[in-house]
């Protein structure tokens, strides 16, 4: 009989956001008259920007004409998009990244999940706690973790992100090979300064470690002193891979497009002590397992880099940041401590001693508002909930009024 990958048995029964969706569906079935407001999963609600829609339509028209039709595209993405990304997101900010170091994909979830395939099974991994669950779950699936005891997997080096360290991961006490970092952070909404990132880049260079840097929320940064890319830090190109997404930046959660930057100078060790290019490995992986993002979607993403596109996405993200501000002010009125929300669409709220799943249930049942229980992001998240700013202004204002009523 065919045998299963036993590592899957170590996972929680379902993925965090599927679990929440199931609970909310159940609640809605039992309470059909309550209009549930979803501030749980970070899914955008506003339409694609007009410049993106126009380019998307044009891309479809190109596919409708033999003269402009495209079949299989390059697995790494079309040059027209990779060049715009390199010029605008990196070179214009002083980061030495070229178009052929960019791999266009269908989103940061897949790339952050798949990238671990390139590494040996017995590497030591450092993962912040709390954290976006994909990093940990994909390493569990790959067999890099031991048993799950007291809310944690053996063999993982957890980097506690707690009030005492301003929710910023600290350098590990024992040596590690691979480090996951995410800024602006999901779920806490905290940001890392240049000095914070410099210490990680220095650590990685000194210890021959690699950083997987998830920058999916960089377009929410308004503080000009904060780095938007890890490549703004000297030497990062040798030791860091960066993941980006058009999902939250330009409303692509349902359209799917993102990219991963793998600098050519990044190298990893073979058993014989020689090194190999990480760029070459990811290129080999992508060309074998991936056939690229559809042409109209890449045309749509390209429009993000036009003058109108930039203005429109600026307005889109500003709208969500204003929602975050309303949520933050409500938390203050309610007497809750929180972080995030200023350069990030997530607000991380201290539940004042409540367990996060109890707080989730309370808000769902008494206010009809969905949040994300912090415990779903790791043990250190258990006393917190995450509130997402991704919804209409009207719904956010309504949700905050309901929370005030439910918690008074
Ligand atoms: C989240 O809510 O953390 C994100 O929307 C999940 C994702 O981007 O996959």
From TrEMBL:
Reactions catalysed: (2S,6S)-2,6-diaminopimelate + 2-oxoglutarate = (S)-2,3,4,5-tetrahydrodipicolinate + L-glutamate + H2O + H(+)
The protein's Enzyme Commission number: 2.6.1.83
One Gene Ontology biological process: lysine biosynthetic process via diaminopimelate
InterPro entries: Aminotransferase_I/II_large, DapL/ALD1, PyrdxlP-dep_Trfase, PyrdxlP-dep_Trfase_major, PyrdxlP-dep_Trfase_small
Pathway: Amino-acid biosynthesis; L-lysine biosynthesis via DAP pathway; LL-2,6-diaminopimelate from (S)-tetrahydrodipicolinate (aminotransferase route): step 1/1
Record's keyword terms, sorted: Aminotransferase, Pyridoxal phosphate, Transferase
Cofactor: pyridoxal 5'-phosphate
Gene Ontology molecular function, alphabetical: L,L-diaminopimelate aminotransferase activity; pyridoxal phosphate binding
Signal peptide positions on this chain: none
Matching SUPFAM superfamilies: PLP-dependent transferases
Domain Aminotransferase class I/classII large as annotated: residue spans: 36-390
HAMAP family for the chain: DapL_aminotrans_1
PANTHER family documented for this protein: AMINOTRANSFERASE (PTHR43144)
Protein name: LL-diaminopimelate aminotransferase
Organism: Desulfotignum phosphitoxidans DSM 13687
Taxonomic classification: Bacteria, Pseudomonadati, Thermodesulfobacteriota, Desulfobacteria, Desulfobacterales
């Amino acid at each position: 009989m065919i045998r299963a990958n036993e590592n899957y048995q170590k996972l929680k029964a379902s993925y965090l956001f599927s679990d929440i969706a199931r609970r909310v569906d159940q609640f809605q079935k039992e309470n059909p008259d309550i209009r549930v407001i979803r501030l749980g999963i970070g899914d955008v609600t506003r339409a694609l920007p007009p410049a993106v829609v126009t380019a998307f339509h044009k891309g479809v028209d190109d596919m409708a004409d033999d003269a402009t039709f495209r079949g299989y595209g390059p697995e790494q993405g079309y040059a027209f998009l990779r060049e715009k990304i390199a010029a605008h997101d990196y070179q214009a900010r002083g980061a030495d990244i070229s178009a052929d170091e960019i791999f266009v994909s269908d989103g940061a979830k897949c790339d952050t999940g798949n990238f671990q395939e390139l590494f040996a099974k017995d590497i030591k991994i450092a993962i912040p706690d709390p954290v976006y669950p994909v990093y940990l779950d994909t390493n569990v699936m790959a067999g890099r973790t031991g048993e799950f005891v007291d809310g944690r997997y053996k063999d993982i080096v957890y980097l506690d992100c707690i009030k005492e360290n301003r929710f910023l991961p600290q350098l590990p006490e024992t040596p590690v090979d691979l480090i996951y970092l995410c800024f602006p952070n999901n779920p806490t909404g905290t940001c890392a300064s240049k000095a914070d990132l410099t210490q990680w880049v220095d650590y990685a260079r000194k210890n021959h470690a690699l950083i997987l840097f998830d920058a999916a929320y960089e377009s929410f940064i308004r503080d000009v002193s904060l780095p938007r890319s890890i490549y703004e830090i000297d030497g990062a190109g040798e030791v860091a891979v960066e993941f980006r997404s058009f999902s939250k930046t330009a409303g692509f959660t349902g359209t799917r497009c993102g990219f991963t930057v793998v600098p050519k100078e990044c190298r990893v060790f073979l058993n014989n002590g020689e090194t190999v290019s990480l760029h070459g490995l990811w290129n080999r992986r992508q060309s074998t397992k991936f056939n690229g993002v559809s042409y109209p979607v890449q045309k749509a993403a390209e429009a993000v880099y036009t003058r109108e596109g930039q203005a429109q996405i600026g307005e889109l993200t500003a709208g969500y940041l204003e929602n975050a501000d309303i949520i933050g002010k409500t938390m203050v009125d309610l007497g809750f401590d929180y972080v995030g929300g200023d350069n990030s669409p997530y607000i991380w709220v201290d539940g004042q001693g409540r367990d996060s799943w109890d707080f989730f249930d309370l808000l769902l049942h008494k206010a009809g508002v969905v949040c994300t229980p912090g415990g779903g992001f790791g043990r250190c998240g258990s006393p917190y909930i995450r509130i997402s700013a991704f919804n209409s202004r009207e719904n956010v204002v309504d949700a905050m009024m309901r929370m005030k009523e439910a918690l008074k």
